[in-house]
Write a structure and sequence with these properties.
Site-specific recombinase XerD; Integrase_recombinase_N; mainly alpha; 2 domains; DNA-binding; DNA integration; hpI Integrase, Chain A; DNA polymerase, domain 1; DNA binding; elongated
Length: 331
């Protein structure tokens, strides 16, 4: 690949996608890479001097000026999130080309990009949904094979009452729940190596104690050693990512609330519900940031902004406002 002086962009796109495939991205992700690279590349080719078909566009033609023009055209009909994703893809593409010795530098820093929009919270829908979920999982379902309601309740209650991420839940040890009665806490190995402490209220503590006692009955006292995984499957083995997701999905189905779980949220909906309820009850962005382990205050602020928006929408739905239309005359 290094013995040629010039390279056509489509050939290099294929080289980049082959290199990325070794990371095992999903087919959807690879399709998104291709779509962004080809879409912006075609716009650049149309704006080259003279205009070219994409198949004939050399990588040396991709100057900062041409890329700015292509991205301006690409951005016009699209949302900021789509433009930001395409910019990141092209930045990765040029980083790859620099590493391969194809181009001397990456022109993307000279191309402006929109600020990445913060993900919007996706809590469970419905005011009574968390309570309905907890009530359902606390009872053994007749159709379950080897029901274990104490474990299921512990998983859902822990997620709803602490807001832990999936990876953080899986990393918990029995000894992670510590402290004297009335001062119980969960010691969390947070994202990015940032540890944090989340208080455990007496009600949640009772649920966890009942779960561990049921675990002793099933697997013996050795199963609850401090260094043992806190969350286990029905064989006493540590829960893995897929097993935990499946467990939470089955709890949603048993509670009859699958239609109240935002698409793509799954277990994260429980974390978002925890944070949203904190905001509704008056917690500050700084408090939410500490409890959820966010790296920036902006992520925590979204919960407060969404809550404020919901409150305004609720007020706006009051039919009395429509009665006021036309009642005030302006002289």
């Amino acid at each position: 690949m290094h013995d040629k002086v010039d390279y056509r962009v489509p050939v290099l796109i294929e080289e980049f996608l082959i290199a990325r495939a070794t990371r095992k991205p999903s087919p959807h992700t690879l399709q998104a890479y291709r779509r962004d690279l080809v879409g912006v590349g075609r716009l650049a080719a149309e704006r080259a001097t003279p205009p070219l078909p994409l198949d004939a566009l050399p990588v040396t033609a991709l100057s900062p000026r041409l890329l700015r023009a292509a991205f301006a055209a690409f951005a016009a009909p699209r949302a900021a999130a789509s433009v930001h994703r395409a910019w990141s893809t092209w930045n990765n593409f040029f980083t790859f080309l620099v590493a391969e010795g194809v181009v001397p530098g990456n022109p993307m820093p000279a191309v402006d990009r929109p600020r990445a929009p913060l993900p919007q919270p996706k809590p469970l829908r419905g005011e009574d949904t968390p309570e309905r979920l907890l009530d359902a999982v606390a009872r053994a379902a007749g159709r379950q094979h080897d029901p274990w309601p104490e474990r299921d309740l512990a998983v859902v209650a822990l997620a709803l009452c602490t807001g832990l991420r999936l990876s953080e839940l899986l990393a918990l040890r029995v000894g992670s729940v510590a402290g004297r009665p009335g001062e119980r806490r969960v010691d969390v190995a947070g994202k990015g190596g940032r540890p944090r402490v989340v208080p455990v209220e007496p009600e949640l503590d009772e649920v966890l104690v009942a779960y561990l006692e049921s675990r002793v009955r099933r697997f013996g006292a050795r199963s609850v050693r401090p260094d043992s995984a806190l969350l286990v499957d029905r064989r006493g083995e540590p829960l893995r990512r897929g097993g935990l997701q499946y467990l939470v999905d089955s709890c949603y189905r048993r509670a009859g609330i699958a239609d109240r779980v935002p698409r793509g949220a799954r277990l994260h909906a429980l974390r978002h519900t925890f944070a949203t309820r904190l905001a509704e009850d008056g917690a500050s962005a700084a408090e939410i940031m500490r409890l959820l382990g966010h790296a920036s205050l902006a992520s925590s602020q979204t919960y407060i902004e969404v809550t404020a928006g919901q409150q305004r929408a609720a007020v706006r739905s009051n039919r009395t406002h429509r009665v006021l239309v036309g009642l005030v005359s302006v002289e």
